[in-house]
Sequence to fold (234 residues):
Amino acid sequence: MEEFICERRSTVSYRDGDIFRKYYKYAGESEIVLEEKFSNEALNNGINCPQFLGWGYSETKKMFFSEFEFIEIKTISKYLVDKSILKIALEQLTMMPTYTQGNDFRNELLEKELYSIIDYLPSDIQSEYVYLVKELFLKKNDVLIHGDYSFENIGWDDKKNTLIIFDFQNSGYGVRDWDRSYLLASIPNTYLVSTISDINIDLMKIITALKYGRGIRKKFELEERKRLYEYWWK
Ligand SMILES: Nc1ncnc2c1ncn2[C@@H]1O[C@H](COP(=O)(O)OP(=O)(O)OP(=O)(O)O)[C@@H](O)[C@H]1O
Ligand SMILES: [Mg+2]
Fold:
């Protein structure tokens, strides 16, 4: 029997015994097949993530669904994260597979999104932002990207005593530092982030601006996102 777990912007999730079942309000077959492919690739490369079991269409709910092994996942607050947890989260990314030729599927969507927020940004940074985004898309897209690598999709797996990564709905191929920078840009504690070495400043600028632009558009976390954006663009 299905037990309700949570409802999010685009999904509704349930537990059914040992199965975690996620129903998609908008996504169809092609998106779910990609989620399956990318989560399998991550798992096969040693990243701790739930095993994808299958997918289908529910006639009663009129929604596509995917199934994963059910895992007890403890949430980690981005406000309380410490250096040791952050280090494990960054280390997981070093296991992401690389490709000589990744396709550009994810980048077409990302490029649109990156340009769509320009009008929300202060006019004095717009030209540098456009320059940085252009440079980004000249780079090779040769590593698997989670695409939403933040503590919303990283939890604690008590059984394995390590972090667990889930939700490969925004995955694809991209540049090496993308997930790393995305995670760092999602942490409100800038002191903690400043203790991390080899930060890609250009990506921090792009991503904090993107998140700030999205924040204005959705009227969400505005103050925090503005502070982080200003920190990297100062
Ligand atoms: N295999 C699993 N077993 C148990 N719980 C899970 C599992 N995978 C995810 N969860 C829990 O369900 C929640 C929702 O899952 P997930 O992050 O995959 O989708 P989502 O964030 O709702 O999708 P969207 O980003 O489209 O809104 C997660 O926050 C997590 O706590
Ligand atoms: Mg999620």
